[in-house]
Amino acid sequence: MSEDKNQNNDNQEQFKDNVVKQENLESSEIKDEELEELREKSKRNKFKIKNKKAVFITTLVGVLCVGIGFVSGKEVGRKLPATSKHYNSSKVIATVGEEKITGEQLKKKMEPLFYLNGKKAMTDEEVSAYESKMIDYMTTTQALYLEAQKEKVTVTDDELNSDYQTTMSSITKEFKMTEDEYLKKFNFTKESIKEELKKELIASKYIGTASEVSDKEAKNYYDKNKDEFLQVRASHILIKNIDDQGKAVSDNQKKKNKEQAEKILKRAQSGEDFATLAKEYSQDTSASNGGDLNFFGKGQMVESFENAVFKLENGKIADKVIESNYGYHIIKKTDEKYNGFDEVKEDLKYKLSYDKQSKTVTNLLKKYNVKVK
């Protein structure tokens, strides 16, 4: 029971720490230092979580102090944009079941964020993006809270008071004002903040329980999806198709590079020592190690490289030059192994917990017919 309780607490903390993340767009130009990625990723020889879907939830501390991407430490004092379409106090901006979320409620959430952001100029698009994230946060919290009430989830006065003290400690430090100054500045009361915290704590407790993953569940997943835990080891020789400034070389140079790579491939296939060829010709940082990239799993290398390696038998060299955004690769697979369950258990439980959280939230948003105006 103690172990289950600790896991539940961990799940609640994980729930609290999740934030909306946007994927970075790939740059059309590859910087030279990005070539380190092949080598650095190969060092991560433990199972890594893939396709994590962050739940649209943070604690009040996270919303106010982190500001969903706002940068603190700048000159403060920016006012909330008066032009926002959402801030009419009587306007309903979203519904969760029978519950309504108004523009005034959104405004109360956004004001501290804009203050914390200081006078940093923001476009209308940026303001709209931050508002959308906040609305996602508010609707998801409400849906979780409604479900938690049905399940009769509660928090104690001690839990609430402790969370309030932690919250205010973070807020006063971040906003550089006393508790009373903060409450007065944004027209909050101690009771109103506690009310928000109580709702979030209850939602957090609910999702913590809903996303519990036992050792047995994790082991069942491991046994049914063992290929996910396959690690391969490979060496490669890279002929780069980018210059020192990260820009693509000319088509003529690219043609010459491919011809060179194909010549090296033939030499490797004829029996010349692969490591020696890598030290002589490879333009990757792994050259000094004979091209060795150590062990890595699926999802850790660029797709064309990964596909080629995982199809090879141990000791075999790919029968053709493999092209990636980095250049041309001559690849040799040198070993493979499966990570044992004990090695991956914690990472796997974390992944499965994420999946449960995402599924739970998705189902509740449908159940409560969440609509954003």
Describe what you observe in this structure.
The structure is a single chain. With 373 residues, this protein is of the alpha+beta class. The chain has two domains: 2-22 and 50-215 and 348-372, Triger factor/SurA peptide-binding fold, CATH 1.10.4030; 227-341, Chitinase A, domain 3 (Roll). 51% of the residues lie in helices and 11% in strands. The chain has helices at 2-17, 36-42, 60-66, 103-117, 124-150, 157-175, 179-185, 190-210, 215-224, 251-269, 274-281, 303-311, 341-367; strands spanning 92-96, 99-102, 230-240, 292-297, 322-323, 327-338, 371-372. Strands 4-3-6-5 form a four-stranded antiparallel β-sheet, sandwiched between helices. A three-stranded antiparallel β-sheet has the order 2-1-7. Helix 1 packs across helix 8, helix 3 packs parallel to helix 6 and helix 9 packs across helix 13 (341-367). It starts with a helix and ends with a strand. Residues 1-5, 11-35 and 37-79 have low confidence and may be disordered.
